[in-house]
Design a protein that fits this description.
InterPro entries: UDP-glycosyltransf_plant, UDP_glucos_trans, UDP_glycos_trans_CS. By secondary structure, this protein is an alpha/beta fold. The radius of gyration is 22 Å and the shape is globular. The protein is about 45% helix and about 15% strand. Bound molecules: uridine-5'-diphosphate-glucose.
Length: about 450
């Protein structure tokens, strides 16, 4: 705790997990806290997995000199998972014992620590040992949180065995969750990273001082209400919706937008599957065919490998010469990192073909851009379900999980036409944008939630 003009300031340290899907909400939260007169120390696991993460960190610290950066040098470890981001999460966790000296060297002493839900089991025992109140930032939806918090209990009962027969999961007093929404690794008998992570982290998150979640009350009213009313766990930690976490100024580059500038309002479809999802080569090509046949204008971000450092191929090699030429007639196609916020906030952009990574969902809500959902992995079907129910977009459930089927260009084109031509969806998404802005605006639900937390932290 420190003082400014005689008033107490809270001092908060943040420790994010691996990948832009986890780093971005932590950076946005740090920026938001600074704007609320909170002193922030940002702990950066070093090295990062992707170049994009290290670039985002450099830009961030250059823009926020008042935020103290502390590098957390990770142990050298063998990669033991097929997914580099999962390996890195393991590495951060196994380096956890290096945190105490780093934390005790921080001045003034910390009021609160905030970490990611994927790191809770390594961090919370350490921070509890030094009586440091620790919160978890849940970077996915509140609906996904219902599954996350109840998973150990489900795994300990017959619920997961019965799912093959019943086709649904029953989480205490909640509406039944169809098996088709649940990430398949969570239902496998064999051990895997996600299952292990849900088992280990969930219990520790339950013992945290509270959970912050990047969503807002009117968007996920039911899930938030059920968690806080004790209908998921008998005694849940308090869950506070603080989203959508707004982008900070230096996230905007305004570099790539010339192509969009002369396009009619709402006429362009933005196509991206987030920071770590590469479609199979044949699916990428069918998607290209679909985009052309849809007749829509588009900006398409092609991703060919999970980690950017490993992608040495040229765009033309990935999508083929002929398709490349045809695509150029109607669209802008890129194979590098784009500033998604620049694109989604551009008036020409009216639709988003998205995998429904939760940050992308919140960014679409923030900008009032309708989603055509094409979830691929993990939490993304649960998120797509939220999107569809609230009226932010449409979802073709039959497209399945990544790699389950090859979705034809013809089918993709038809769905794009439907989504982009849906006037009522356009109007609904504008209403959601208003609600999103209200939630974080002065006196809004997320604003109030964060304000209350900060005043409590000042007392710690
Ligand atoms: O070229 C790009 C690609 C992505 N982004 C940004 O990167 C973030 C990506 O996050 P998200 O949309 O959530 O997707 P993933 O990168 O796939 O995120 C991972 O983390 C999320 C949060 O836990 C989960 O919901 C996802 O399923 C998981 O894959 C967003 O802020 C995007 O705006 C860009 O700015 N430019």
């Amino acid at each position: 705790m420190s003082t400014s003009g005689g008033r107490k300031l809270a001092h908060v340290a943040l420790l994010p997990s691996a990948g832009m899907g986890h780093l971005t909400p932590f950076l946005r939260l740090a920026a938001l806290l600074v704007s609320r007169n909170v002193q922030v120390t940002f702990i950066t696991p070093h090295p990062t997995v992707s170049l994009t993460e290290s670039r985002a960190l450099s830009t961030f610290f250059a823009s926020f000199p008042q935020i103290k950066q502390k590098q957390f040098h990770l142990l050298q470890a063998e990669k033991n998972s097929f997914d580099p981001f999962f390996s890195h999460i393991e590495l951060i966790k196994s380096s956890g014992h290096l945190l105490p000296p780093l934390l005790s060297a921080l001045t003034p002493s910390l009021s609160v620590f905030i970490t990611d839900m994927t790191l809770a089991s390594a961090v919370i025992p350490i921070t509890q040992a030094i009586s440091l109140p620790t919160y978890v930032l849940f970077t996915s939806s509140a609906k996904m949180m219902t599954l996350f918090l109840s998973y150990p209990a489900l795994a300990g009962s017959r619920a997961l065995d019965d799912v093959e027969e019943t086709g649904v999961i029953k989480i205490r007093n909640l509406e039944l969750m169809p098996k088709s929404l649940v990430p398949p690794p969570l239902l496998q008998k064999s051990d895997n990273f996600l299952k292990k992570s849900f088992m280990e982290e969930s219990g520790k998150v339950i013992g945290s001082s509270g959970i912050l979640v990047n969503t807002f009350a009117s968007f996920e009213f039911e899930s938030l209400g059920k968690i806080n009313d004790g209908e998921v766990l008998e005694r849940p930690p308090s869950v506070v919706a603080i989203g959508p976490l707004p982008p900070y100024d230096s996230e905007k580059s305004r570099l790539q937008l010339a192509w969009l500038d002369d396009k009619p309002a709402g006429s362009v479809l933005y196509v991206s599957f987030g920071s770590r999802t590469a479609l199979a080569r044949d699916q990428i090509r069918e998607l290209g065919v679909g985009l052309i046949k849809s007749g829509s204008r588009f900006v398409w971000v092609v991703k060919n490998s999970i980690v950017d450092k490993e992608d040495g191929q040229e765009l033309e090699e990935v999508i083929g010469h002929e398709l490349m030429e045809r695509v150029k007639e109607k669209g802008l196609i890129v194979k590098s990192w784009v500033q998604q916020e620049d694109i989604l906030s551009h008036p020409a952009v009216g639709g988003f073909l998205s995998h429904c990574g939760w940050n992308s969902v919140m960014e679409a809500a923030w900008n009032g851009v309708r989603i055509l959902a094409w979830p691929q992995n993990g939490d993304q079907k649960v998120n797509a379900d939220v999107v569809e129910r609230i009226g932010l977009g449409t979802w073709v459930r039959s497209w399945g999980w990544s790699g389950e089927m090859l979705v034809s260009g013809e089918e993709i084109a038809e769905r794009i036409r439907e989504c982009m031509g849906d006037e009522s969806l356009r109007i609904q998404t504008l209403g959601i944008k208003e609600d999103a802005r209200k939630a974080v605006g002065f006196g809004g639900s997320s604003d109030k939630g964060l304000t209350e937390l900060i005043s409590m932290w000042k007392q710690f």
